[in-house]
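Exam revision sheet. Question 4 asks you to relate a sequence to its structure. Input first:
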Amino acid sequence: MGKILIIGGTTEGRAAVEVCEEAGKPFLYSTLGTSQEIALHHGTRLEGPLDADAMTSLCRREEVSVLVDAAHPFATIVHRNVAKAASEVALPTVRYERAFPPLPEGALSVSSFPEAMKELERLAPRRLLALTGVKSIAAMGDYPLRHEVWLRVMPIPETERIISESDFPRNRLIYYDREQDDRALMERLRPDLLLLKESGESSGFEEKVKAATALGIPILVIRRPTLGYRPTETVLGPVGLRRALERLDPDFFPLRIGFTTGTTATAATTAALLALLNDETYAEVPVRLLTGEEIRFPISETCIESEECATATAIKYSGDDPDVTSGTTILSTVRLTDSHTGVTFYGGKGVGRITLPGIGLPIGDPAINPGPRQMMTEAVGRLVDLSRVGIDITITVPEGETLAPHTFNPRLGVVDGISILGTTGVLRPFSTEAWVDSIRREMGVSRSVFGEHLVINSGGKSERWLRAHFPDLPPNAFVQYGNFIGRCLEMARSMDFAHITLGIMIGKAVKLAEGQLDTHSKKSVMSKPFIRSLGRESGLDEATLDRIDGITMAGEIWEILPDHAHPFYHILLDRCYAVCKPLVPGIRLDLILIDKEGGLIERNAEDKNKRNHV
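Answer key, structure tokens:
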């Protein structure tokens, strides 16, 4: 079995490690220095320089199957070595690229450090602030000895080694301090010029530019060099990397991820509008997920019907999730109109229609959920000015009416078709034993890498809110249980976690409180009589209890009982605790109920009566 080799030492390298850890199989992580703090569970850390020959030998010796280049965009020698090693061993390569915002208007830009030095001699700033890193000392030559140059550096051993071998004035070094933002530094120094490398979003390029622009400080940017080779695939985030590795080494991950109907519809919408604007069709288009990551999505067909209307088709790919919509054809018809501005959505054949409250959409609307609407609106808004242009988007699913009875839609009052869904845009296969195994592996990483506090949650949306609530916890402390709350708690107990925080949204909470430890809709359903009994216990009057009888989804309870301090929520959390606690005796268990907007209600195990409403 081959291994994945990641060339890292960067933010992207760290993200690539997190992706590969999900596989539960050995991989290699190579960094030039030792300064990056990262703990590996299934990976092996390699430290020190790898020239092309050494990298080639490593790939042969370890039977590397895919080479992931996550090195810094300015690491030109490293990229050259990756290209040579991949060529010698005939390996596919994946470039994990950063997102690069456009260069600021009015900024001077040059293509290299030598050009930057010539420009500095010409401009002759009285005081220069360079945010280009310690390795730029060599490129500056004697310039810092002849001019006032302030250089920000990282407080790591490699920095001290380079400084000790140079004549750079130590009293003009600024050690990076995460507590001091860029603007505060610039306000203190008041430089005449800011020197930057075009190093991408993950290095804080935009924040530095915004701070300088706000203070009226001119900017000189060294543009990023070209990669120097053509990778097999280029990705911009963890989802793209996961899909690339699934394609290039199909045996590495036990399960394949997929994409939602919302992502598929967004791809088709993007392709249709691009066809209208450019009078050409596309085999694939960019789609920005709700996490902000951009992926490429294949398009199967596009038809330009007129100057104002085009239809594009994309195929739903579900990976290994047992989804009845897998392989379904989804069409988007985009029509330019002057009858309104902005976006109007319509449901074509096979897209359901809302007939009951509680979905979060008006009765009579097409069942295109808020997440996909946001994705499609933002996608077309990046191509046209929606304050001046009107766009009608009609989503059609030819097989939707046939598929609908096999979904949850009939219970939700969605008729005549399926829903266009998606909260993150990505499908992770919750409903298989292999997914439980992947939870076990993630928890193993969390226990060995981080320690004793585990935060478990149902999915991407709740995890984002919990990460914001626990800003000091590392990413490894958070594990998604999907629908397997009971199995997850049992595994946590076997791994000797001392403290577990369970984050849960109300739809799963009302099932868990009744004793249903597997909360998948195919195995458990919301019991309105049970919810009514909780309401009666919390002191609700009959009129309010009758309103609860009329709900379609548990999320409607927040609208009926908007006060987070209401006893209903305390009783609900107490019932959930009573169901879960026997599975984790001797372990501190805290519960957090999460509302639709990310508001939290906490049940603190150390003080049962303490309730935090944030």
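Marking note for examiners. The CA atoms of residues 516 and 524 lie 7 Å apart.
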